[in-house]
Amino acid sequence: MTRRVLVLPGDNIGSEIVTEAVKVLEAINLQFDLGVKLDYGLLGGAALNVAGNPCPQDTLDSARDADAILLGAVGGPQWDHFERRLRPESGLLRIRAELQLFANLRPAIMYPQLANASSLKPEIVAGLDILIVRELVGGIYFGEPRGIRTLENGEREGYNTYKYAESEIRRIGKVAFETAMVRDKRLCSVDKSNVLEATILWKEVISEMAADYPDVELSHLYVDNAAMQLVREPKQFDVLVTGNMFGDILSDTAAMLTGSIGMLPSASLDQFGGGMYEPCHGSAPDIAGQGVANPLATILSVAMMLRYSLGSPDSASTIEHAVSRVLDRGLRTADIQTAGTTRVGTAKMGDAVVAELQAAAALV
Ligand code: IPM
Ligand code: MG
Q: Which pLDDT band holds residue 292 (cuts at 50, 70, 90)?
């Protein structure tokens, strides 16, 4: 069986971290005989430079043909002066929307080896294992009308629309409840229903759905309180479900709890289990080309890809264990370095994960 993976390195550190993730994917492919075949495509600024479009049609066509997509990161100051529809970020939003990748899973797991790298006290974050389920193709990111207009008095006004249809809430709610069922069965829905109608409906629909999942303990928090609770006592959470914009913000907060956003993978899934896998972090133009970026979030995204889209949970766990062993050995990229550890660059980190995979395979 052939499994086709489309690789979209993207911009800035994107190609550096993807190179390492591909090394790991190729190693695991050999080890587990997965039949993975790689294709490459352009997205973001890289695509804009070549095709004048941050999400060209042939990228979309290859993405539709693929069993899964591995994405690095897009964007950078090189393209900041372009109008919004041409910006690299618009390419990312377009591929998410075109493929209807509505369910964004962002796990924040604290590796015990990194407890000292978090900005929070070790006892607050030790053992942390939470999952943010973010709606990814609706809400204020996509709502129409939107724009910047000139009012009668000559003043400019920017405006966006925050809306969620019941069906959109139900489909993300289903993913969240089902994910909670296979975890600790606790789900917290995050809204701003004290102010925003779109989230009054959100809360109502999620509450109605709870009847179908009697084993899941459902709670609700306003987004401001959720942000506070995440840094006060993050271990109170198991699964959080929220809309596009709140999920964007809360997932960066959750990421930092674990020591570095450089450790956080993500999966963006469609209704059928197809998906795009990418690190939660951005394209880090400030360190691009230096070979110092942390590739582990992208490598862990490969593990999520194997688990959710390529039907190989065993190989996913094998990668996750290899990452853990590399951390045990004290290897750290700059973002997670603490006293007494050994600093390595992007390529050395990727090689170290591959070496652990090979060492584990030799033991079998
Ligand atoms: C993310 C990013 C994107 C988002 C940007 C790059 C458009 O911040 O994936 O979290 O806001 O969704
Ligand atoms: Mg973000």
A: very high
